[in-house]
Amino acid sequence: MPCKPRLEITAEKIELPAAIRELWAFRDLLICFVWTEITTKYRQTILGAVWAIIQPLATMLMLTVIFHKFLHAPTDGLPFAAFSYSALLCWQYFSSALTKSSQSVLTNAGILKKIYFPRIALPISSVVPQLVDFAIALTVLGFVMCFYGIGINSRIVFLPFCVMLLMLPALGAGLWLSALQVRFRDVYHLLPLIIQLWFFACPIGYALSAVPREYQGLYELNPLVGAIECFRWCLLGTQANILQPVVLSSVVSLIVLISGAIFFQSAEGGFADFT
Amino acid sequence: MPQPSILIENLSKRYLRRAHSAQTFIANEIIRQLTSLGRRMHSNTQTDHTLNDERYLWALRDINLEAREGDVIGFVGRNGSGKSTLLKIIARTTRPTRGRAVVFGRAGCLLEAGTGFHPELTGRENIFLNGMILGMTRKRIQQYFDEIVEFSGVCDQLDTPVKFFSTGQIIRLGFSVAAYLDHEILLIDEVLAVGDAEFRRQCFDKMAELARQGRTILIVSHQMEYLQQLCNKGALLDRGQLVAYGDWSQIVQKYASVVAAQEFPVSVS
Fold first, then answer.
1. What is the ipTM of this complex?
2. What is the domain range of residue B159?
3. Among positive and negative, which fits the CA dihedral A23, A24, A25, A28?
4. How far apart are CA A112 and CA B63, in angstroms?
5. Residue B131 domain-assigned (yes or no)
6. Which of B93, B98, B136 is best to mutate for the A interface (most A CBs within 10 A)?
7. Chain A residues near residue B111 by CB distance under 8 angstroms
8. Three-state DSSP class for B246?
9. What is the count of residue pairs from A and B with beta carbons less than 8 Å apart?
10. According to the model, what pLDDT value does residue B50 have?
11. C-beta atoms of B103 and A183 within 8 A
C-alpha cells in the first residue's frame, strides 16, 4: 500500500517553522495569488498601468508646491523633483503593500472559510504585486534623472537590497495588522490614519538633515528612513552617511517581521471563526 | 478490511455566540493563560466551566467516528446540528476546541457555487486559480483541462471574464474543477442541489464514479434521495452529538424518527 500522509488535527497552533515548510508546498497557489492581483489590477481602466506613474507624479507636483516653493525644505543639494519623486516611489510601494497585506485576510474571508491553505500566504502574496507598479514608476525616475543630468553609478547593484528594506517592514506591519483586524475591526479605521502619519515621518518632502540632531536616532527607528536614504544613495548618488539609518531600519524591520509572523501564526487558528 | 481513512476522537468544537469586546477579550486571554499555567501544575482537572455557559455554543460534543477507505458517508441531521462544522474541522478551515481528528491522505472540498472565483479573471484563468485553491497542482489542471471544460459545458465562454457568466454557468464551472480533484478524501457540503436537471444528473454520475474509485467521501445534505443512492454509511447528528453511525439503512430509519419527534412540538407562529 502506498504510504499516505497522516495528518493530525487538534486545537494546537501550527508553529512558524512548520507553517513555512507548508507554505513551500503551496507555492503554486502563492504564485497564483500574486499573478491574479497583477493581471486584474488595471482591468476595466482606460489608463491601465499609467496609473502606476500618475500617482507618484501627482504627489510630487503637490509636494513641490508645498515643501519646495512654500517651505523651502532642504534637499541635500538635489533637484527637488528627483529628490521627492525617488522617495515617493518607495512610499507608494510601501503604503499600497501595507494596505493590501493588512486587509488580505478579511478580503479573502470567502475562501478562508471554505478551504485550507497556510493563511500566511495571504499577507505574503499581497506585498509582491505592487513591485510591478514600483518597476514601472522606476522607469520614470530614469527620465527625471536624465533631465537633471544625474548619471547612474555602480551603487545601483544595491537596489535589490533597498527593495528588500521596503518589503520587510510592509510585510511585518501587514502581518500584525491583518491578524489584529480579524478580531478588532478598529484596525480598518485606524489604518488610513497610520499611513497618513507615517508619510510625514519619512524624509519624502524634506531631507533627513532637516530633523533636529537630538531626535535623529529616534527618527531613524522608522524603518522607511533607512530604506529611502539607501534608495537615494544608490540611485541619485547622495553623499550622506547612510550606514546608521540602514542598519537601524534593517534591525527594526526584522523585529517587526519576525514578531508579526509569530503573532499571525498564533492567531490564524481562529480566523475562520471570526470573519 | 479496508484501511482507516479518518479517525475522530472525542472531538468538540466551541463557538462564541458573539464576538467579545476588546476588554473581555483581553481579560479572557489573561484568565486563559493563568488557568493553563494552573492546569500544568495540577493536571487532573477535566471539568470545563464553559460547557453550560450561555456565552458559548458547543457545535460539536465528544464526537467519535471512524471512516475507512471507500466509505461514502452521508451526514444527516437538522440545521445547526454540527454537520458542517465537523466537515470544516476535517477540511482544516476551523480548529477543534478539544479532541483530535486524524486524517490519512489528503482531504479536498467541493465548494459552494462561485467560491474562490475571481470575477475579473476569465473562465480559463479561473479554472487554474480555483484548481490551485482546491489543492491541485498546475500540472494536473493542465492535464485535465480539456475534460474540465467539456464537463462544464462553457467552452464558448472560456475567455470571457467570469463576472459576465450566469449563476448556472459559474456553478457548472466550479463543480467541474472540483470533480477532477485527486484527493483520497472528498468533503461535500450541500452542493448537490444546484444547476439544472441535466447538470444535476451529470454531477450525480460523477459523484457515483468518484465513489467507485475507492475514495472516502463525506457528504452533508438534506437531499435524502441523493444520499440514498450514493452512501453506504450514514451518521446522524443532533445538537452537536453523534446520535448514530452505521449502515445507511439504519440511519435513514433513525433520522425519520428524529424528524417525526421534532415535528410534533413545532408551533406555527
1. 0.82
2. 107-182
3. positive
4. 24
5. yes
6. B93
7. 114-115
8. strand
9. 97
10. 62
11. no
Asked whether the predicted pLDDT for residue B20 surpasses 80, the reply is no
Residue with cell 480555483: B130
Q: Which amino acid, residue B29?
A: E
Contact A273 B16 (CB under 8 A): yes
E strands within chain A?
6-9
Give the minimum alpha-carbon distance from A144 to chain B in angstroms, rounded to a whole number.
35
Nearest chain A residue to B139, by CA: A28
Domain membership flag for residue B42: no
C-alpha angle A187/A191/A192, rounded to 5°?
145
**How is chain A split into domains, by residue range?**
16-41+48-264
d(CA B225, CA B56): 35
Half-sphere exposure of A215 (CA within 13 A, CB side): 8
Q: How far, CA to CA in Å, does A235 sit from each of A64, A75, A224? A: 20, 15, 16
Closest partner residue to B138 among A28, A270, A274, by Cβ?
Answer: A28
Q: Tell me the pTM.
A: 0.88
Q: Which three cell numbers stand for residue B241?
A: 452529538
Would you list the DSSP string of B73-92? EEEE-STTSSHHHHHHHHHT
CATH number (domain holding residue B157): 1.10.8
Separation between Cα atoms, residue A81 and residue A86, nearest integer Å: 8
Closest CA to A129 of A70, A165, A171, A161: A171
Domain count, chain B: 1
pLDDT of residue B224 exceeding 80: yes
Contact B133 A110 (CB under 8 A): no
A114, B92: Cβ pair inside 8 Å?
Answer: no
Residue A114's SS3 state is coil
Is residue B264 pLDDT above 80, yes or no?
no
CA distance A91 to A84: 10
Q: Contact A169/A246 with Cβ under 8 angstroms?
A: no
